[in-house]
Amino acid sequence: MQSPIPFEISRRDLLISSAATIAITGVSADRTAAQSTTNESPPRSEVSFKVNGESRTLNIDNRTTLLDALREHLHLTGTKKGCDHGQCGACTVIVDGRRINSCLSLALMHEGDEITTIEGLGQPGNLHPMQAAFVQHDGFQCGYCTSGQICSSVAVIEEIKANIPSHVTSDLAAQAKITPAEIRERMSGNICRCGAYSNILDAISEVAGIKA
Ligand code: FES
Ligand code: FES
After folding, report:
1. 141 CB less than 6 Å from ligand 2?
2. What range does the domain containing 131 cover?
3. Looking at the structure, do residues 71 and 130 belong to the same domain, yes or no?
4. CB 144 near ligand 2, within 6 Å
5. Residues 82 and 110 in one domain
6. What three-state secondary structure class fits 63?
7. Cα of 27 to ligand 2 centre, how many Å?
8. Closest-approaching ligand to the CA atom of 150
9. 103 C-beta neighbours (distance < 10 Å), count
Protein backbone atom coordinates (compact mmCIF):
# COMPACT_ATOMS: atom_id res chain seq x y z
CA MET A 1 0.00 0.00 0.00
CA GLN A 2 1.30 3.43 -0.96
CA SER A 3 2.01 5.88 1.78
CA PRO A 4 -0.03 9.15 1.65
CA ILE A 5 1.50 12.01 -0.37
CA PRO A 6 3.35 14.14 2.10
CA PHE A 7 1.64 17.49 2.53
CA GLU A 8 3.57 20.17 4.22
CA ILE A 9 2.86 23.84 4.44
CA SER A 10 4.86 26.19 6.51
CA ARG A 11 3.35 28.97 8.57
CA ARG A 12 5.08 31.43 6.20
CA ASP A 13 3.49 29.82 3.08
CA LEU A 14 0.09 29.94 4.73
CA LEU A 15 0.43 33.64 5.51
CA ILE A 16 1.52 34.43 1.92
CA SER A 17 -1.39 32.49 0.47
CA SER A 18 -3.92 34.18 2.82
CA ALA A 19 -2.56 37.61 1.94
CA ALA A 20 -2.96 36.84 -1.78
CA THR A 21 -6.58 35.72 -1.27
CA ILE A 22 -7.40 38.89 0.65
CA ALA A 23 -5.80 41.01 -2.08
CA ILE A 24 -7.82 39.29 -4.85
CA THR A 25 -11.06 39.58 -2.87
CA GLY A 26 -10.30 43.23 -2.22
CA VAL A 27 -9.77 43.93 -5.94
CA SER A 28 -13.01 42.20 -6.86
CA ALA A 29 -14.94 44.03 -4.12
CA ASP A 30 -13.47 47.32 -5.39
CA ARG A 31 -14.60 46.46 -8.92
CA THR A 32 -18.12 45.64 -7.75
CA ALA A 33 -18.29 48.89 -5.82
CA ALA A 34 -17.03 50.81 -8.87
CA GLN A 35 -19.60 49.09 -11.06
CA SER A 36 -22.45 49.77 -8.70
CA THR A 37 -21.58 53.47 -8.55
CA THR A 38 -21.44 53.70 -12.36
CA ASN A 39 -24.59 51.57 -12.85
CA GLU A 40 -27.45 53.84 -13.76
CA SER A 41 -31.04 52.93 -13.04
CA PRO A 42 -32.86 51.55 -16.11
CA PRO A 43 -34.19 54.26 -18.44
CA ARG A 44 -37.82 55.24 -17.99
CA SER A 45 -40.21 56.96 -20.37
CA GLU A 46 -43.70 58.32 -20.43
CA VAL A 47 -46.35 56.72 -22.59
CA SER A 48 -49.98 57.70 -23.12
CA PHE A 49 -52.73 55.54 -24.54
CA LYS A 50 -56.40 54.83 -24.13
CA VAL A 51 -57.38 51.75 -22.19
CA ASN A 52 -61.04 50.76 -22.34
CA GLY A 53 -61.91 54.27 -23.46
CA GLU A 54 -60.00 56.02 -20.68
CA SER A 55 -56.84 58.08 -21.30
CA ARG A 56 -53.93 56.77 -19.24
CA THR A 57 -50.37 58.05 -18.91
CA LEU A 58 -47.63 55.96 -17.34
CA ASN A 59 -44.00 56.64 -16.50
CA ILE A 60 -42.42 53.23 -16.81
CA ASP A 61 -39.19 51.33 -17.23
CA ASN A 62 -38.63 51.14 -20.99
CA ARG A 63 -38.56 47.34 -20.80
CA THR A 64 -42.13 47.03 -19.46
CA THR A 65 -44.36 44.87 -21.62
CA LEU A 66 -47.90 45.97 -22.40
CA LEU A 67 -49.09 42.98 -20.34
CA ASP A 68 -47.19 44.14 -17.26
CA ALA A 69 -48.28 47.74 -17.79
CA LEU A 70 -51.91 46.61 -17.79
CA ARG A 71 -51.64 44.20 -14.89
CA GLU A 72 -49.02 45.74 -12.61
CA HIS A 73 -49.44 49.46 -13.30
CA LEU A 74 -53.12 49.81 -14.21
CA HIS A 75 -54.28 46.85 -12.10
CA LEU A 76 -56.36 45.40 -14.94
CA THR A 77 -55.75 41.80 -13.96
CA GLY A 78 -58.39 40.28 -16.24
CA THR A 79 -55.65 39.89 -18.85
CA LYS A 80 -53.64 36.84 -17.82
CA LYS A 81 -49.97 35.95 -17.98
CA GLY A 82 -49.67 32.34 -19.05
CA CYS A 83 -46.37 31.58 -20.78
CA ASP A 84 -45.01 35.16 -21.11
CA HIS A 85 -43.46 33.93 -24.38
CA GLY A 86 -46.16 34.45 -27.01
CA GLN A 87 -47.21 30.82 -27.02
CA CYS A 88 -50.51 30.53 -25.15
CA GLY A 89 -52.68 33.54 -26.02
CA ALA A 90 -53.79 34.12 -22.40
CA CYS A 91 -52.54 37.72 -22.62
CA THR A 92 -54.51 38.62 -25.77
CA VAL A 93 -55.89 42.16 -25.88
CA ILE A 94 -57.33 44.20 -28.72
CA VAL A 95 -55.22 47.14 -29.94
CA ASP A 96 -56.75 49.43 -32.54
CA GLY A 97 -59.15 46.65 -33.49
CA ARG A 98 -56.52 43.91 -33.88
CA ARG A 99 -55.63 41.23 -31.35
CA ILE A 100 -52.10 40.99 -30.06
CA ASN A 101 -50.20 39.00 -27.47
CA SER A 102 -49.53 41.74 -24.94
CA CYS A 103 -46.61 39.81 -23.43
CA LEU A 104 -44.67 40.25 -26.69
CA SER A 105 -45.17 43.98 -27.03
CA LEU A 106 -43.48 46.80 -25.16
CA ALA A 107 -45.90 49.30 -23.64
CA LEU A 108 -43.88 52.18 -25.11
CA MET A 109 -44.76 50.94 -28.61
CA HIS A 110 -48.40 51.86 -27.99
CA GLU A 111 -48.27 55.63 -27.74
CA GLY A 112 -51.70 56.93 -28.79
CA ASP A 113 -53.20 53.45 -29.29
CA GLU A 114 -56.66 52.34 -28.22
CA ILE A 115 -56.43 49.21 -26.12
CA THR A 116 -59.37 47.05 -25.11
CA THR A 117 -59.05 44.44 -22.39
CA ILE A 118 -61.65 41.99 -21.14
CA GLU A 119 -62.74 44.61 -18.59
CA GLY A 120 -63.58 46.99 -21.44
CA LEU A 121 -65.71 44.51 -23.41
CA GLY A 122 -68.40 44.16 -20.78
CA GLN A 123 -69.03 43.97 -17.07
CA PRO A 124 -71.18 41.76 -14.87
CA GLY A 125 -74.79 42.62 -15.66
CA ASN A 126 -73.81 44.12 -19.00
CA LEU A 127 -71.87 41.39 -20.77
CA HIS A 128 -70.56 41.63 -24.31
CA PRO A 129 -72.46 39.12 -26.51
CA MET A 130 -69.27 37.02 -26.73
CA GLN A 131 -68.91 36.92 -22.95
CA ALA A 132 -72.58 35.91 -22.63
CA ALA A 133 -72.13 33.18 -25.27
CA PHE A 134 -69.10 31.76 -23.43
CA VAL A 135 -71.19 31.55 -20.26
CA GLN A 136 -74.15 30.02 -22.06
CA HIS A 137 -72.06 27.39 -23.87
CA ASP A 138 -69.74 26.56 -20.94
CA GLY A 139 -66.77 27.82 -22.93
CA PHE A 140 -64.44 27.58 -19.94
CA GLN A 141 -63.56 25.52 -16.91
CA CYS A 142 -60.79 27.10 -14.83
CA GLY A 143 -61.19 30.38 -16.75
CA TYR A 144 -57.48 31.19 -16.96
CA CYS A 145 -57.44 31.33 -20.76
CA THR A 146 -60.91 32.83 -21.06
CA SER A 147 -60.20 36.55 -21.24
CA GLY A 148 -57.69 35.91 -24.02
CA GLN A 149 -60.10 33.56 -25.79
CA ILE A 150 -62.90 36.13 -25.68
CA CYS A 151 -60.73 39.04 -26.86
CA SER A 152 -59.43 36.85 -29.69
CA SER A 153 -62.94 35.68 -30.62
CA VAL A 154 -64.25 39.22 -30.91
CA ALA A 155 -61.30 40.22 -33.12
CA VAL A 156 -61.49 37.04 -35.21
CA ILE A 157 -65.03 37.79 -36.35
CA GLU A 158 -63.93 41.30 -37.34
CA GLU A 159 -60.87 39.90 -39.17
CA ILE A 160 -63.04 37.62 -41.29
CA LYS A 161 -65.53 40.40 -42.02
CA ALA A 162 -62.58 42.60 -43.07
CA ASN A 163 -61.62 39.83 -45.54
CA ILE A 164 -58.23 39.13 -43.96
CA PRO A 165 -57.31 35.63 -45.17
CA SER A 166 -56.00 32.77 -43.02
CA HIS A 167 -54.16 29.54 -43.88
CA VAL A 168 -57.47 27.78 -44.52
CA THR A 169 -59.05 30.45 -46.72
CA SER A 170 -59.45 28.62 -50.02
CA ASP A 171 -60.48 31.45 -52.32
CA LEU A 172 -58.42 34.57 -51.76
CA ALA A 173 -60.37 36.46 -54.44
CA ALA A 174 -63.72 36.00 -52.67
CA GLN A 175 -65.03 37.50 -49.45
CA ALA A 176 -63.84 35.30 -46.56
CA LYS A 177 -66.62 33.37 -44.88
CA ILE A 178 -67.06 32.68 -41.20
CA THR A 179 -66.86 28.89 -40.99
CA PRO A 180 -65.94 26.48 -38.20
CA ALA A 181 -62.65 25.77 -40.01
CA GLU A 182 -61.81 29.49 -40.20
CA ILE A 183 -62.64 29.96 -36.51
CA ARG A 184 -60.56 26.92 -35.45
CA GLU A 185 -57.58 28.06 -37.51
CA ARG A 186 -57.69 31.67 -36.30
CA MET A 187 -58.20 30.66 -32.67
CA SER A 188 -55.33 28.16 -32.75
CA GLY A 189 -53.00 30.56 -30.93
CA ASN A 190 -55.27 30.54 -27.88
CA ILE A 191 -54.50 27.45 -25.86
CA CYS A 192 -57.01 26.06 -23.37
CA ARG A 193 -55.43 23.59 -21.00
CA CYS A 194 -58.89 22.55 -19.80
CA GLY A 195 -59.78 21.55 -23.36
CA ALA A 196 -62.97 23.59 -23.65
CA TYR A 197 -62.40 23.96 -27.40
CA SER A 198 -65.68 22.52 -28.71
CA ASN A 199 -67.72 24.74 -26.38
CA ILE A 200 -65.62 27.77 -27.32
CA LEU A 201 -66.35 27.03 -30.98
CA ASP A 202 -70.07 26.79 -30.16
CA ALA A 203 -69.97 30.18 -28.41
CA ILE A 204 -68.15 31.94 -31.25
CA SER A 205 -70.38 30.31 -33.86
CA GLU A 206 -73.48 31.54 -32.09
CA VAL A 207 -72.24 35.12 -32.01
CA ALA A 208 -71.16 34.86 -35.65
CA GLY A 209 -74.59 33.47 -36.57
CA ILE A 210 -73.34 30.20 -38.06
CA LYS A 211 -73.71 26.52 -37.21
CA ALA A 212 -70.71 25.03 -35.39
FE1 FES B 1 -48.61 35.99 -23.72
FE2 FES B 1 -48.77 33.36 -23.22
S3 FES B 1 -48.73 35.02 -21.82
S4 FES B 1 -48.84 34.38 -25.14
FE1 FES C 1 -58.94 26.45 -18.15
FE2 FES C 1 -59.06 27.29 -20.68
S3 FES C 1 -60.67 27.19 -19.23
S4 FES C 1 -57.32 26.84 -19.52
Report:
1. yes
2. 124-212
3. no
4. yes
5. yes
6. coil
7. 54
8. 2
9. 23
Distance, CA of 165 to CA of 98 (rounded, Å)? 14
Indicate which CATH number applies to the domain containing 180. Answer: 1.10.150.120
> Considering just the CA atoms, what is the radius of gyration of the chain in Å?
28
Residue whose CA is at the smallest distance from ligand 1 atom 4? 86
Residues 88 and 53 grouped into a single domain: yes
Ligand at minimal distance from the CA of 149 is 2
Choosing from 65, 91, 121, the residue where a domain stops is: 121
Is the CB of 189 inside a 6 Å radius of any atom of ligand 1? no
* pTM greater than the 0.85 cutoff: no
Instruction: Say if residues 152 and 187 touch (Cβ distance below 8 Å).
Output: yes
Q: Which of 121, 139, 167 is the last residue of a domain?
A: 121
Shared domain check, 135 and 114:
no
What does the pLDDT read at residue 197? 98
Report residue 27's pLDDT band, with 50, 70 and 90 as the boundaries. very low
Q: What is the DSSP letter of 65?
A: B
- For residue 198, being part of any structural domain is answered with yes
Q: Dihedral sign for Cα 104, 108, 109, 112, please.
A: positive
